C-alpha cells in the first residue's frame, strides 16, 4: 500500500474512533439518566444527548466519510487493508448508505413522527385505546415502506428490516424456523397446562431488597463478571451497557415481593455484560467493538438466565445460600418445589412477563404481524383483531383489552419493525450454542452444580465474545456449531425439561 | 439590527450552546470518574474526555468563532445585541485571544510538560524531593512568563495570571489587602495560641459513616439545596459540580474517626452547589451560566461552612440531633465544649487541613511567592527555603520536609499560577457579603438558630447567584456591599469570635 493510502487508512480510523468516543459519552449520559440523574436536569441533558447524537449522525453521513468510503473501497485498496479496517469500512458504509438514501426532509419528518407517536402510544396504552394510536402507526408503517423503497430489498420487503437487527436472517429462514418452533411448542404447552400448575405462592413473600442485591452480586461474581470493569446499579427498566470493554455496567430492579425480577434479571443482564467485557482489545475504537447482532447478544443473556440460572444443578448449589439471604421465606419449601416454582410454565398476555417456553410464541405473533404489514397482507386497522386471534390460537389466552394486547410494547411506536424476531432467535441460538459447548465441556452440568462457571464463561468468550462484529451472526453460528439456524435443539430442550418437570410421560 | 445580523447573533448563540453541551458531557464524565467509574475503563474514558475537550478547544479558536467575534464586535452591531449576547461575546473573545495568541507548537509543548510535571510532582512529593521537581517547575514558570509576553500585562506581570481567575483583582489591591490581613491575623493568632488549646479528643471517635451521611443530607436540605436538581455521592477529593442548573451534584468524604470532614465538607460543597442551582434560566446554554469567579464561588462555600456551619446558633439548633446520629460519642460533651472544639485554632503545615483563621496565612505565603517568581525577585531553586521562612514567620511552624512544605499542593505542577489568591479572597468577600446580608436580614443569628435558612439562601441567590457571569466579581461586591475589596470585616469577624471563644480580653 502506498504512503498516501496508509495515511488515508489511519485518518479514517481516527475519524471513526472519534465517533466511538462521542458514542461512549452518549452512553454514559444514557446510563446516568436511568440510574439516578436528578429529575430537573433531564430535559437539558436530553438536549445534550441530542447535540452529540446529531454530531455522530453528521459524521456518519459527511462528505469526509464519503471520501474515505470511496477511496478505501477501490478493490485493490480494499484488499490491502487490515481485517479490522475492512470490517470497519463495511459497517460504516452500511450506515452511510442507509442514512443518505433517505431524503433529508423526509427523515426529519420521520424523526418528529417517531417522538410524537411514542407519547401518543403511551397515552393510548394507558387508555387502552388503539384507535388513538392507529393513524400514527399507519404513518410509521408507511414511512418504513417508503424507506424500503429507497434502500431496496431482496426476496421480501421485510428482509430489509430484518437485516438491520439480524444480518443474514430472512423471511424464508424465519418462516420455516418459527413455524417449526410454534408447531412443537403449542402441543407441548397444551400438555403442560393440562398437567396442572405447581405451587408458587411462596415465591411472592417479602425478600429484603438489600439481600436480593447481595445475592445478585454473588452470582454475578461467580459468572465471571469483572467488577473492576463494571458495576451494578438499580433502575426501572433493567439493561446492560458496554461503554468500553473496561466499563460494562449492569442494572437491575428489586421487587420486594418477587425476588425473581432481580435475580434472573441480573443473570440475564450479566450475560449481556460478559459479551461486552470480553471483546477483543484489537477492536477498541471501532464500531466492531460490540455484540454482532441483537439476536446473538440475546443468546448470551438467555444462555445464562435459562441454561444456567434455571438449571437444576445451579439451585442444588445455590438454594441453601438463597435461603440464608431470604430469611425465613423458604423455610418450609424443599428444593424440588422451589425448582418447579421458578420453572412454572403458564400462558399469559404480556411478553416481558412470559416464562421461557411461552416467550417465543409471543415473538412469533409479532413476527407474523410485521411480515403481513410489510407485504400488504394485513392492515393496521385490523391489528387488534388479528393480535387477539393469534394469541388465542397459539397461547390459548385472549386479551381483555388492547393495553394488554396489541398496545403492550413500545417498539412499533418508535418505528422499530424487524426487531422482535431477534428475541426468539436468541433462544434458538442459545440452545444451539449450548450443544456445541457441551461437546467441548461434557461436564457442563457438573460445572454448574459446582458453581465452577469460569470454564463456561471462557468458552463463550473464546468462541463468541472476542469477535465482536468481526463475524456476522450466521458466521458465528456456523463456525461454532457447524450448522445454520436450527430450532431443534431448543425444541428438544423444552421437551426434555418440561416432560420431566411435569412428568408428561 | 438587520435580518442578517439577527441571524448571525442566533447562529453565534447556537454555536456557543453546542460548546456548553460538550462541556456538560465532559462534566458528567468527570463526575463519574470520581464517584465510582470502574477502574479498568478509566484510561479509555480519559481518551474520550480528551477528544471532547479538544473539540471544544478547537471550536473556541476556530475561524468560525473568529468570524462571529469580528462581525459582532463592530461597535454599532455590539450595541444592538442583547445583554446576554454581549457578555457571552466578551467571554468567548477573552478565551479566543488567550488561546490563539500562543503559538500552537509552544502550547502543545506546554500541555505535554504539564502532564509530565504532574506525575513528577506526585513522585517528588512522595519522596519529599524538591530537586526532582525543580527543573519542571522552572520550565512551567518560564512558559508562563513567555505567555504573559504574548498576552501582555498592565502594571504587573502577575496581574495577567490573577485576571484568569479573579478578573479585576490586581497586585496593587492584593498587596494592600493581604498585608493588612496578615498583620492583623498574626498577632491575634499569637494570643490565641498562648491562651491554650481547648479539649478536642472527643471529636475523633467512631461516628458511623451511614449516620454521617444522614446528618449531611439533613443539613443540605435545610440549606435549601434542591435534591430534585442534585444528589450527594461519595468521593476521595470532594467537589461540587454544576452540569446544568437542574443537575448540580455534591460529593463528600466520610472519615469514620473525624466526622468534621463530611459535615463541614458537605456544607462547603453545598454552598458551591446553591450558587449553581440558582443561576438565572436566561443564561442557560451560554458560558455565563456558572459562578463569576473562583473567589466569589469560594465566598459562597465559605459563607455556609463558616458563618453558618461554625455559628454558635447553628449548633444550639443541631447539637441534640447530631448527638442522636452519632450514638454515644458526645454523651459527656456539653454544647460549649463541642462548639469550642470545632472552632479550634492551631497553626499547622497543611493548607487544606487548616482552620478558618490560619487558612488565609497559608494562601498569603503562596501569593507572595508567586508574585516574586513572576517579577524575577525569587528563583525557583530558593523556594524551599523561602517557603519555610514564611511559614515560620507567619504561622510559627516550620515544615520538617518539602512534602509537608513547598511540595504539598498540586496547583503549580499543572501550571496554575494566580489561582491561590482566590481562596483567601473568598473569605474576605464572604465576610463583606455577610455584613450586607445582615443589613437586609438583621435577624440572621436567629434564623440560623431556628434552622430557618431559606431566607439566607434566597438573599444570596437574589444578590449573587442569579447573575452568573453577567457581573464581574468586583461589580457583585460593589453592588451588594457598596464598597470595594475590604478585609476589615473578616478581621473583625476573627477578632470578635476568637476573643470571645478564647476569652482574650
From TrEMBL, chains A, B:
Residues engaged in binding Zn(2+): 268, 272, 298
Gene3D superfamilies listed in its UniProt record: 1.10.1370.30
Keywords for the protein's UniProt record, in alphabetical order: Carboxypeptidase, Hydrolase, Metal-binding, Metalloprotease, Protease, Zinc
Any single biological process term in GO: proteolysis
Swiss-Prot/TrEMBL catalytic activity: Release of a C-terminal amino acid with broad specificity, except for -Pro
The record's free-text note on cofactor binding: Binds 1 zinc ion per subunit.
Cofactor: Zn(2+)
Active site: 269
GO MF term (any one): zinc ion binding
Family membership noted in the UniProt record: Belongs to the peptidase M32 family.
Its job: Broad specificity carboxypetidase that releases amino acids sequentially from the C-terminus, including neutral, aromatic, polar and basic residues.
Name the UniProt record assigns to this protein: Metal-dependent carboxypeptidase
Organism per entry: Fictibacillus marinisediminis
Amino acid at each position: 500500500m502506498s504512503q498516501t493510502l496508509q495515511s488515508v487508512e489511519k485518518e479514517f480510523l481516527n475519524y471513526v474512533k472519534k465517533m466511538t468516543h462521542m458514542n461512549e459519552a452518549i452512553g454514559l449520559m444514557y446510563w446516568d439518566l436511568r440510574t439516578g440523574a436528578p429529575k430537573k436536569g433531564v430535559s437539558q441533558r436530553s438536549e445534550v444527548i441530542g447535540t452529540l447524537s446529531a454530531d455522530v449522525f453528521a459524521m456518519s453521513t459527511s462528505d469526509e466519510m464519503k471520501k474515505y468510503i470511496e477511496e478505501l473501497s477501490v478493490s485493490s485498496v480494499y484488499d490491502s487493508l487490515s481485517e479490522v479496517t475492512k470490517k470497519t469500512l463495511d459497517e460504516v458504509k452500511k450506515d452511510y448508505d442507509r442514512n443518505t438514501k433517505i431524503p433529508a426532509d423526509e427523515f426529519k419528518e420521520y424523526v418528529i413522527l417517531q417522538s410524537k407517536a411514542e407519547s401518543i402510544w403511551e397515552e393510548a396504552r394507558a387508555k387502552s385505546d388503539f384507535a388513538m394510536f392507529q393513524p400514527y402507526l399507519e404513518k410509521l408503517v408507511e414511512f418504513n415502506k417508503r424507506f424500503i423503497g429507497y434502500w431496496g430489498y431482496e426476496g421480501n420487503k421485510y428482509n430489509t428490516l430484518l437485516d438491520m437487527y439480524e444480518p443474514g436472517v430472512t423471511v424464508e429462514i424465519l418462516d420455516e424456523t418459527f413455524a417449526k418452533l410454534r408447531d412443537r411448542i403449542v402441543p407441548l404447552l397444551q400438555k403442560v397446562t393440562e398437567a396442572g400448575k405447581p405451587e408458587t405462592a411462596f415465591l411472592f413473600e417479602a425478600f429484603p431488597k438489600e439481600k436480593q442485591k447481595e445475592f445478585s452480586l454473588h452470582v454475578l461474581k461467580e459468572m465471571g463478571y469483572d467488577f473492576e470493569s463494571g458495576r451494578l446499579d438499580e433502575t426501572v427498566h433493567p439493561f446492560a451497557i458496554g461503554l468500553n470493554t473496561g466499563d460494562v455496567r449492569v442494572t437491575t430492579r428489586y421487587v420486594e415481593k418477587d425476588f425473581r425480577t432481580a435475580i434472573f434479571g441480573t443473570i440475564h443482564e450479566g450475560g449481556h455484560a460478559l459479551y461486552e467485557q470480553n471483546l477483543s482489545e484489537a477492536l477498541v475504537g471501532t464500531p466492531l467493538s460490540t455484540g454482532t447482532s441483537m439476536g446473538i447478544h440475546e443468546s448470551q443473556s438467555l444462555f445464562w438466565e435459562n441454561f444456567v440460572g434455571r438449571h437444576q444443578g445451579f439451585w442444588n448449589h445455590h438454594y441453601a445460600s438463597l435461603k440464608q439471604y431470604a430469611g425465613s421465606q423458604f423455610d418450609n419449601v424443599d428444593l424440588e418445589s422451589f425448582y418447579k416454582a421458578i420453572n412454572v410454565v403458564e400462558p399469559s398476555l404480556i411478553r416481558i412477563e412470559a416464562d421461557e417456553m411461552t416467550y417465543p410464541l409471543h415473538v412469533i405473533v409479532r413476527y407474523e404481524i410485521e411480515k403481513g404489514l410489510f407485504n400488504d397482507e394485513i392492515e393496521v386497522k385490523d391489528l387488534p383483531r388479528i393480535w387477539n386471534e393469534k394469541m388465542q390460537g397459539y397461547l390459548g389466552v385472549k386479551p381483555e383489552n388492547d393495553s394488554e394486547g396489541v398496545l403492550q410494547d413500545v417498539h412499533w411506536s418508535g418505528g422499530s419493525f424487524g426487531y422482535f424476531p431477534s428475541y426468539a432467535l436468541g433462544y434458538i441460538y442459545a440452545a444451539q450454542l449450548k450443544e456445541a459447548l457441551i461437546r467441548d465441556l461434557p461436564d457442563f452440568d457438573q460445572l454448574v452444580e459446582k458453581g465452577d462457571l469460569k470454564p463456561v464463561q471462557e468458552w463463550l468468550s473464546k468462541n463468541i465474545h472476542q469477535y465482536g462484529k468481526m463475524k456476522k451472526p450466521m458466521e458465528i453460528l456456523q463456525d461454532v456449531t457447524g450448522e445454520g439456524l436450527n430450532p431443534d435443539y431448543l425444541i428438544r430442550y423444552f421437551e426434555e425439561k418440561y416432560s420431566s418437570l411435569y412428568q408428561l410421560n
